[in-house]
Amino acid sequence: MPAGRRLAFGGLKDVQIASAMSEPDRLADLVDGVMTGDPWHGPTVQALVDDLTPDEAARTPLPGVHSIWALVLHMTGWAREVHARLEGGTAGEPAAGDWPAVPEPTAAAWERDRRVLFEVHATLAAAIRRAPAAMIDQPVIDYRDRAAGTGLSKYLTLHGLVHHTVYHSGQIAQLRRALRP
Predict the structure, then answer these.
(1) Residue 108 vs residues 45, 47, 74, 111, 156: alpha-carbon distances, Å
(2) CB distance 163 to 157 below 8 Å
(3) DSSP code for 147
(4) If pLDDT is split at 50, 70 and 90, which confidence band does 4 have?
(5) Which residue from 78, 87, 64 is spatially nearest to 168, judged by alpha carbons?
(6) Second label for 163, Cα 20 to 30 Å away, from 26, 85, 103, 169?
(7) Would you state the pLDDT for residue 11?
(8) Alpha helices in the chain (DSSP H)
(9) pLDDT at residue 149 greater than cutoff 80
């Protein structure tokens, strides 16, 4: 989040700040907030992944679940896909697929994939802030396919990404508890 900005999440002062903000700025703050800000729902994605080792991130401590690393790659891909939709691209599955393969669990690979997760979300938030307010009412270019989250306005698509990120951050929190009882 840019220095000096404050998320509009509650309290009278926050309401006053939020009322002076554009809708794209509020949406960008939501994207930043769940990743590195101060969300009311729980820890940020950054707080959940920063201290994990590559082995912890790659482990699947519960049967039939994705690893934390797989969730990081999945969230990165969908943030890229939403950014492409925001820029006028046709909706589809992320270029690397819905669930990209987790690489060999090395410190360098884990650091890279964590860094890219936050870079992609920060780049998306910056693009949202630069967008004209009228952009949010424009449709995403695609035919409606509820399973793929397409055929929506850019506003609903951006909110969907925030919801998607929060959903998976809850999964990461549960996996952390299983890894570190």
Answers:
(1) 19, 19, 19, 5, 35
(2) no
(3) G
(4) very low
(5) 78
(6) 103
(7) 46
(8) 11-19, 23-36, 45-49, 54-58, 68-86, 107-130, 154-179
(9) no
